[in-house]
Write the structure tokens for this entry.
Amino acid sequence: MSFDWRIKKQLLYLGVLAIIPLALVIYFAFQVGPEATCFDSKKNQGEEKTDCGGPCKPCLENLSEPSVLWKRVFKLADGFYEAAFLIENTHNFAASDRFFYRIKIYNQENIAIGIREGETFINPNEKFLILDPGFSTAERVPVRAEIEFEQVKWRYAEYSPPNVVVVSRVFSPEPQPILNAKLRNNDLFSADNLQAAAILYDGTGKVVGASLTNIDKIDGESEKTVSFSWPKTALAGEPENIEILVRRYSPAEKP
């Protein structure tokens, strides 16, 4: 009997010795676990929400709205005006498929004499032009324009801007102001559904004209000439510098 008891005691002792390291392994496995990341669908490592904030990308609801770099009003004809704004999105990971805005133009007495609403899209990390030529003011003369944004519905996005460069710019003031810009697509594949903006500056850097046009396609490793035109009254002076901005329509906003 004493022999059997000694065997049982030894087996019990060995069992306890085996259980202790196993328990330690299980404990540390639960305590340490896999390394936390910004893609593990868990709120950890100081994140504000699941996989955003803290060491991860900022949460979408905390992102600032785009910035307005400049704003202008141009006369198209007597009683007809357009408002132009250069907008910048500095977030390199966020886009918006539908970006709503409201434009107001004011006269010398600071009275709003025109209000129009519109929408466009925003790609990550880009500057883009908003241009509205639809203001009819009768005899009232606007002197400034303002733009207000609705709350931006951001989404995380990856975006590769079109590999399109400006080869040449030729501006002719007569008989009607026109700009012919030759663009080259340096990619092997075609660049589709593009929007091109032309911005004209005088010698002091002041914007004297702006225009938008859509480009269906530029074939791979090919060039295409696009034209921008203005009524004579729409240019506030002779341009000395010309900026061309090209961006790709987002999937939800193909023209």
User: Anything to note?
Assistant: Residues 121 and 216 are 17 Å apart (CA to CA). The chain is about 10% helix and 45% strand. Helices lie at 2-32.
